[in-house]
Request: fold
Amino acid sequence: MVRLTAGLTISATFGRPSVRLAVAGSFLLLLTLSTGGCVEQLLTVDSEPSGAVVTLNDQEVGRTPVTTNFKWYGFYEADVRKDGFQTVKKTSPVIAPWWNWMPFDLFAELIPVRYTDHQYLHYTLQPMTARQDDPARLLRQGERLRSELQSGANEPRTRQTKPATTKPTTQNAKPSTRPNGESSTEPVG
Reply:
């Protein structure tokens, strides 16, 4: 029932408390579903020393320390390289937090709260040794491999195979007569 009072004020009254509770609950549910939650996923890659170039799954993301958004959990192929240091190639896991597991992720998306999942990956680069960094040694090794390839030292070995057999795989059958007069085919043996 709607009642008008003086001063152009409109107020509505509902007869039962259960109706008021249902209206209030519906309003809160509608508000919750319309605002929705948000999950922000960040991945920070750091290295010692900093300034190394980072490649995740064959995509360059920047120099360390670098923070980037990510969409998928799982394993990332990380390449971290810097001049004067050995390149680090490693498969690193990025694991979802418990509130992003099924079925909890549904509630995390519906509750109007912003969640931030910040994952960290850290790599330590080792300095190059004089032997690894020597270009003359690399050229000598390349020349040695080229000469081995040209001389045929690495030719694949062929395997000797036996000739195919020509033996029959089935036995000859001869007709026979059964006591009741029916004929059948039985193997010779």
